[in-house]
Amino acid sequence: MKRLIINKTETSPFIDFCFESRILQIQGQSTLDEVIEFYTPVIEWIRSISQKQNIDFTFILEMEYFNFESSMMLFEILTELEKVNSEGKNSIDVIWNYDERDEDMVEAIEKYSEIIQLPFVLNKM
Questions:
Q1: I need a surface site. Which of 6, 28, 63, 68 has the fewest CB within 10 A?
Q2: pTM to 2 decimals?
Q3: Number of folded domains in the chain?
């Protein structure tokens, strides 16, 4: 399966989805206006792993900031991962590294972890 790497810009995060290492990572900030265009390859990559079986993945998030539009796409990414996990063929763990002083980020993490049925490990930085 082809590795998905998207380099970080001033408005977009670094993304590295590597099938071989079983690590899916999004790191940085996301203040994009065109979030659908940017995150579509991410969603497609996740959907493609649903065809694989008996594979454990770790999804690592380390977001400095994300705007409302990006939060909707992040929710969609987590929902797609939840689907892959719930099909019983694969296992997905979420590790979310965050700045505990960022109250908005803490609130967002709490909401996502209540709604999305995935194992979350929350790491304060």
A1: 68
A2: 0.93
A3: 1
